[in-house]
Amino acid sequence: MRKIQLLGVALLALFVFAAFTAVSASAANVYLLAEWLVGGSAVTTELLVEMSGELLMEDTTGALGAPVMVLCSWVLDGWMGPNSLGPLTE
Question: What are 18-39's pLDDT values in tens digits?
Fold first, then answer.
């Protein structure tokens, strides 16, 4: 009977420790909003933007043993504003 009581106390202590660890870990996950900068100063009004870029995807072991490369390019239109708002429209 004494071993069962000792096991219960040990499980309770483990539960309390796990709960404390989970609470302290979740408190550390604070996400800050991004801030758009233009010329080093924060954006205070809505600005139209156009972004473009390229992405090269390469598979060094293609179906016939030869490397396969795909180049993707894109143009994104939208706007950016204060408080890290920046939806894409096209």
Answer: 766 665 555 555 667 777 888 8
Instruction: Number of helices (H) and strands (E) in the chain: give both, helices first.
Output: 1, 4
- Can you tell me the distance from the alpha carbon of 88 to that of 52, in angstroms, rounded to the nearest whole number? 12
* pTM (two decimals): 0.41
Q: Which residue ranges in the chain fall short of pLDDT 70?
A: 1, 19-31
Contact 55, 75 (CB under 8 A): no
- The DSSP secondary structure of 4-29, one letter per residue, reads HHHHHHHHHHHHHHHHHHHHHHHHT-
- In order of 31, 33, 76, 79, the CA distances from 88 in angstroms are 22, 18, 7, 7
**Residue 34 three-state SS:** coil
Helix (H, G, I), strand (E, B) or coil at 37: strand
Mean pLDDT for the chain? 78
In sequence order, the 6+-apart residues with CB closer than 8 A to the CB of 72 are 54, 55, 56, 57
